[in-house]
Amino acid sequence: MTELPALITAFTTLFIIIDPPGLAPLFLALTQGMSTAQRRAIGLRACLTAGGLMIVFLFLGEAVLNFIGISMPAFRIAGGVLLFLTALDMLFQRRQARRKESADEGGQEHHDDPSVFPLAIPLIVCPGAITTIILLAGQAEGAADFAAIGGVMAANLVLVFGTFLIAPFVERVLGKVGINVVTRLLGMLLAALAVQFILDGLRSFGFAS
């Protein structure tokens, strides 16, 4: 996990799942009418909350699986299927529609501070991100690997926070068409990574070479 190719794969997988460019318009909608300072504070709280949740799943996710009797290869296959479905949603734009619906619901209930819900969860720490973190933790073999995964999570959250800060600029530059194109490209990459997770799980059971 501490090798550069593995780190790049882990970072790319989590980046695609979280999809910072896709969060930009939702962040703008949830913080509409707020000042730059208020938006910055909300974005920071959302990322810190998401980081805390990610750490919990990183260290306790596999223990929970073991407690209920689910092996990592089985979870890797199930996780791969879930990530593949997420990729299909991204390719056909269903995911963004659901995110928009969650954002609308969260904005109605928590208009003053949407940092915890819906920004931190379920928009940043979505089911796909939880699955990815647990899968990465299952591949870790020591403290250095867990530290590397933590660094990957932190790097993604820094990018999310940066996206929140420049959300108005990103939306103007990319526009709706640009965001759709980026989302579909990331969906294709995620589909390939999901298939790799499934193959790794099958290989552990001796079904793939």
Quick recap:
The chain is an all-alpha fold. It has helices spanning 4-18, 20-30, 36-67, 72-91, 94-109, 115-124, 127-139, 143-165, 167-204.
Topology:
Elements: H1 4-18, H2 20-30, H3 36-67, H4 72-91, H5 94-109, H6 115-124, H7 127-139, H8 143-165, H9 167-204
Characteristic terms for this protein:
9 helices; 0% strand; single chain; 85% helix; mainly alpha; 209 residues
Quote the beta fraction.
Answer: under 5%
What is the string of SSEs from the N terminus onward? HHHHHHHHH
Radius of gyration: 17 Å
Terminal residue distance: 21 Å
Structural class: mainly alpha
Total of helices: 9
User: Approximately how much helix is present in the residues?
Assistant: over 70%
Mean pLDDT: 83
Count the E strands: 0
Low-pLDDT stretches are none
Profile the largest sheet.
Answer: none
Shape: globular
Task: Provide structural commentary.
The longest helix is centred in the C-terminal third of the chain and has 38 residues. The protein is mainly α. The protein starts with a helix and ends in a 5-residue tail after the last helix. It is globular and about 55 Å long.
